[in-house]
Amino acid sequence: MGGSTAGDASAGGAGEAGDEERTRPEARLERAVRAAEQALIEFEIAVETFRVEVENFSRLHHQKLGPMYSRLDELDAQIAEARAASTGDPEDVRKAQEARARVMPMPGIEELFHDWLDSDGLSPEAAAMLTEQPVRPPQRVRPSDEARKLYRELVRKAHPDLAQDDTERARRDEFISRVNAAYGRGDEPLLRELSEEWAAGPVAEEWRPSRSEELYARLEWLAQRKELLALVARDLEESAIGAMLKIAPDDPDRLLEEIAEQLLAQVSEREAELAGLLGSGA
Q: Cα torsion for 20, 22, 25, 26, to the nearest 10°?
């Protein structure tokens, strides 16, 4: 009986100690900080994933549709010039000049459209697009599902916000920058190599702040970081490409095809309008 009583007392004491550990202010703050850290990491993953999607969709958009937009601008300029030549109205002349200014070459346009423009103007691929002929598809860099999975796992494991000191943070910053670069290129093999590299490296100890002031400061920093990320996410979502991508997140290629069809119809309409103006002028 005595042993049982002693055991009960011991168990009761351990339970009380556990309750005290769970209820002390530092413990509650530690749980809040860990939850905030994980929430921030997941938010960063979501924002970076969407940023890469927007970047890739923007590249495909420019590659596939850029020549069509250029063709429409050129036709608009020719229509305005033909109308101005026919009427001689100063207002029509002004509009023609403005329309022509919009199709002047911009710096770096070759880089913008990649292999769709060359020194002689539209490349064969671009010309084929405008005439609805078979065309070489633009290079795809959209990360695979496996690449997305590897990326998320690596960020959760190696995120700099989990570092305990400046040295560890620097190591994680350098590693995550390589992870982001590999993911941006959709380089699944490199992501696998990076996963193995991280697994072979030192394992960071779980951060255990001991003072309430440090925990409060940590929570404040996490909140500020989330606000900055929210601004980035909002800018991405409100951008023209981001808004387009949100229309068809599961099938963006089909959206590009639909836009291409609409642009081709507009090109045909402009060409017919220009032919009518030139015919009437003759």
A: 110
